[in-house]
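wait is this the right file?? whatever heres the structure
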């Protein structure tokens, strides 16, 4: 089988590529240049796709004895991930850029190019498993990345491989060390890769500008003004610009955001609870939508808890009723449906949260 191994320069993708070589496949490594002006060095565990990362990936490819290329996806990444991220925050939403990157770059643009060049499969270092064409959680629950892959279609998954999903992270590092790969102890990337400073508010402010509005209580009392709703997300407690807790002495949290009026409403923790979600643009990873209500578990954050729910496709929207309320759920987040079975939790599908209700 002809395999294109996506090599970020980290330990996970390096071991994934090595395992595909061991399996006897014809492997070619590729590093995606996602920045038009990549930095020379990473900032600890922040950032990715630097020149250092590309060099690390190339050294691993040399050790594995496979061809290696760098493909420039910077323009596509800016349009499909960065611009989408900024626009979503400007609408008062809270997006997950890793979800969009997988959906539109790694398993859309990259996979399409790979197939066009005659490759059968794109292998990545994601912690997830494929079994019988079904996407499942990784063995290492703490590193599981099935959530950010749940936006992939059955056709995209047909050309995907996740060689390390059956192994715990410490064993992956140990394997990299045994193979003599210098990336064995390289820190994992955290935060948002295109904001290496970690200051999301400043990044958004520089691109959206000042759009003043008010921070208000549920009865409309103005507590403060702000420079834009992009500086807030549902469930946020700090950085609200208000004097302190409410009259009852309890902390106040962002409970709703109206980008059109610039209004950020605050309330107490109980106001954050939601019992129903509506998702737009649903994707069903097995290729077919379920018929009627489905008992499942729903997860709304990459490493959040999954709670029992009933999901149903109504028209072109996914309606999810939670058996246990969730707090701090924001529009723009991705909801992912799971179904436990004998082989581990299977991903049923996903959607982008468009509305919530109590």
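ok assuming it is, sequence goes like this
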């Amino acid at each position: 089988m002809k395999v294109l191994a996506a090599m970020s320069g980290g330990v996970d993708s390096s071991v994934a590529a090595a395992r595909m070589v061991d399996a006897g496949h014809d492997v070619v490594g590729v590093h995606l240049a996602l920045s038009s002006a990549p930095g020379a060095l990473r900032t600890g565990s922040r950032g990715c796709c630097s020149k250092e990362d590309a060099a690390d990936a190339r050294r691993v490819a040399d050790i594995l004895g496979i061809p290696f290329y760098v493909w420039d996806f910077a323009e596509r990444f800016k349009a499909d991930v960065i611009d989408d991220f900024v626009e979503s925050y400007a609408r008062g939403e809270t997006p997950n850029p890793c979800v969009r990157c997988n959906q539109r770059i790694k398993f859309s643009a990259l996979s399409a190019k790979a197939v066009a060049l005659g490759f059968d499969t794109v292998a990545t270092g994601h912690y997830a498993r494929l079994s019988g064409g079904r996407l499942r959680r990784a063995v290492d629950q703490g590193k599981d990345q099935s959530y950010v892959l749940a936006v992939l279609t059955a056709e995209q998954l047909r050309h995907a491989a996740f060689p390390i999903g059956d192994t715990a992270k410490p064993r992956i590092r140990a394997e990299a060390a045994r193979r003599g790969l210098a990336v064995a102890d390289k820190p994992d990337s955290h935060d948002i890769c295109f904001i290496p400073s970690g200051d999301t508010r400043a990044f958004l402010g520089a691109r959206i500008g000042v759009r003043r509005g008010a921070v208000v209580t549920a009865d409309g009392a103005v507590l403060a003004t702000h420079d834009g709703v992009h500086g807030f997300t549902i469930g946020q407690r700090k950085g609200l610009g208000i004097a302190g807790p409410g009259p009852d002495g309890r902390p106040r949290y962002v409970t709703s955001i109206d980008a059109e009026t610039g209004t950020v409403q605050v309330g107490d923790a109980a106001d954050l609870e939601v019992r129903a979600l509506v998702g737009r643009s649903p994707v069903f990873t097995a290729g077919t939508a379920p018929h009627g209500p489905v008992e499942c578990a729903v997860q709304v954050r990459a490493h959040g808890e999954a709670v029992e729910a009933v999901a149903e496709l109504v028209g072109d929207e996914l309606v999810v009723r939670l058996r246990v309320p969730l707090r701090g759920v924001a529009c723009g987040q991705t909801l992912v449906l799971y179904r436990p079975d004998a082989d581990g939790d299977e991903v049923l599908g996903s959607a982008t949260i468009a509305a919530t209700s109590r």
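The helical segments are 11-22, 51-64, 74-90, 97-116, 146-149, 154-158, 169-178, 200-208. so i think its the right one actually
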